[in-house]
Amino acid sequence: MPNFLDDIFVRLQASPQRVVLREVHGETADKFVAVSAAELLALVERARTWLRARQIAPGERCGLIAANSIHWIAVDLALMVEGIVVA
Prior knowledge:
Blueprint (H helix, E strand, L loop, with lengths): L3 H11 L4 E7 L5 E6 H17 L7 E2 L7 H12 L3 E2 L1
Parallel strand pairs: 3-4
Antiparallel strand pairs: 1-2
Helix pairs in contact: 2-3
């Protein structure tokens, strides 16, 4: 039975050109940066590569301290996929 992460990644892979996230930029919230499913998947893979290179093992704890952003979401997904406990 697939878990919620499997479902997220299946949906992202099924619609690679679809905009899945928008980040507000600018003081008046009138500017946005949009990310497609393919771009989000690439960010997640980049974060996973970084985590593996540092030999952070499944079950280990890792703090994620950053401003809310598209990159935060990508790193959080990468941590969960790698089985690292987000503290």
